[in-house]
Amino acid sequence: GKIKKSGYQSLDKGLGRSSMIAHEMRMHRNYDVIIAGGKAFNPFYCASFGVEEKVLYNVGLPRMDMLRENTEKCRKQFFEAYPELEGKKIILYAPTFRKGEILDPKAIVDAFDFNGEQMLIIKRHPNQRLNEENLGSAMTCDDVPTSTVLSVCDCVITDYSAITIEAAILHKPVYFYLFDLEDYLSRNGLNVLLSDEFPDSVFYEPKKLFESIASGVYDYDNYKRFCEKYLPEQSGRATDKIAALIIDCMRRDKHEAISERISEQN
After folding, report:
1. pLDDT score recorded for residue 88
2. Where are the beta strands (DSSP E) in 20-88?
3. Mean pLDDT, the chain, integer
4. Domains and CATH numbers, the chain
């Protein structure tokens, strides 16, 4: 997904690339095809990669197939590793990567009610450090990937991360903690205004965020509209479709194969 701006969209911004380096390194040049998500993101893919829509193959990533097909396997593995969490409400906090920053969970940990009936699991981006001194009673479950925690959690807290799309695949309720929205808009930028897509699920204070989660009230009708808008139209067979495209390119002219496959989706 392209919830946040990236690539050519964010050149020379605080969290973006240098335009000079992008030019010298010919960033995102010479792509024959780009495996993409839902078509609603297409204008943003084009702007981010500097390409035309005709190279976008909107079938989703193999990771989507993995999430769908391995849910029960992931649940079994997780609760074998963490049997003390079985039966508890699990809330996953997985914020986006912020270059050059250390993830400090203090505000969200301080607002969470560690009452024995629920647990907060914090998963950082692999390239970002976590201030573990402010973890409190929260867990990180470093020995299992975020995708596994996503399979077992009851809801997800994030901000501008593409984990929103992964959560949507599994129909997990998503809440948005946008404590630095104005700063992030100026330093990086967004393609999707989350307050428009999720008017009842965007929060700027952790206390109000957890009050909403505790209430159990969630706008699933609006969530369904989001999924229909941003997920691939025929999701679920991304791996098969990508493999078929690669084999087709090996057997005949790759440009003809790519053009034909992409035209089939329109």
Report:
1. 97
2. 34-36, 56-58
3. 94
4. 7-61+235-264 (no CATH), 64-230 (3.40.50.12580)
Q: 95: which DSSP letter?
A: P
Map residue 109 onto helix, strand or coil: helix
> What is the per-residue pLDDT for 100?
87
pLDDT at 236: 74
pLDDT at 266: 66
- Which residues of the chain register pLDDT less than 70? 266
Q: What is the pTM for the complete model shown?
A: 0.92
